Amino acid sequence: MTQEAGGRLPSGPAGPGLYGECLFRPQDEGEAARVDLGALVYDATTFARLQQLGVGPGMRCLDVGAGTGTVARQLLREAGVAEVVAVDRDIRFLAAEPVAGLTALEADASGPGFSPGLFDLVHARFLLMHLPSPARMVERLAALLVPGGVLVLSDAVDLTTEGAPRTPYTTAMRAMWRGLRETIGTDVSWVPSCPRLMVAAGLEAVAAEIHVPPLVPGSPMSRFWAGTWDRARAAMVGTGLVDEAGIDEAKQCLESPQFAGLSPGMLTAWGRRAVPPTTPS
Ligand SMILES: C[S@@+](CC[C@H](N)C(=O)[O-])C[C@H]1O[C@@H](n2cnc3c(N)ncnc32)[C@H](O)[C@@H]1O
């Protein structure tokens, strides 16, 4: 097996492919189930944060890169928001289960014509890490807020890639991040600076938190990583950091009661658009 010494996050040139085209294609069997495993892990954390930020009845919400729509549906069902516009480059999973108040909008959020209106909440989870120019995307999404509206962005952080002992699991994770970088341009190295990007975009009351879910055999998180490695197998092997047998060994680790690895987690950052001061009449 070929391996590299350090465990730095990949910072080389981004591959030219797109999420949903050369990897994680929505038409591939089981892709909705894979995305739902991630949602199962993170929905409670996301929803608790949205509620703490005051998301509730009457609000107009935008969920960008909405995937299967679990956050959009929970906002309507449990927070009682007025409307959710759920945007994705491919809306087949959103359209499959229509719900009152949910508008599925097929659009490229990074494209020049993206202008879905103004919202009280703009949310995107595990989207910006797959797109070029996160700073420009933060600016663009911040510009979709009404005064007082809140932008909430979640992306992956990985505490195992730097300085962690080399194991089959950490080797597979490093190969995955590098493989995603080299094929579809995925980059999580900027994620810890997301709060700073929000301040630079003019947002106020910016803060952030991290949730790292436990890796337990058979858990949705373990199954999500095993399924993600299966889909990204060629990209991972193509990095030269791992081979097929190494990926299988890492998958076996995920299922072992002896395994004690740290999963990548989710950094959520939020900030509000300022309310202009009222001028005395
Ligand atoms: C990793 S999934 C996350 C799905 C969902 N936000 C969640 O957390 O469960 C990323 C989603 O973003 C969508 N996506 C990727 N690039 C996009 C773009 N340029 N514009 C809109 N959606 C995009 C993909 O189709 C996919 O549904």
CATH second-level architecture of the domain at 31-158 and 187-213 and 262-272: 3-Layer(aba) Sandwich
Show unreliable segments.
1-9
Q: CATH class of the domain at 31-158 and 187-213 and 262-272, anyone?
A: Alpha Beta
- Give the fraction of residues assigned to helices: 25-40%
Secondary structure category: alpha/beta
The average pLDDT score comes to 92
* Range of strand content: 15-25%
According to CATH, the homologous superfamily of the domain at 31-158 and 187-213 and 262-272 is Vaccinia Virus protein VP39
- If you consult CATH, what is the topology of the domain at 31-158 and 187-213 and 262-272? Rossmann fold
Number of helices: 8
Question: Which cofactor or ligand species appear?
Answer: S-adenosylmethionine
Strand tally is 7
SSE string, helices as H and strands as E: HEHEHEEHEHHEHHE
Organism: Streptomyces broussonetiae
GO biological process, one term: methylation
Protein name: Methyltransferase domain-containing protein
Keywords: Methyltransferase, Transferase
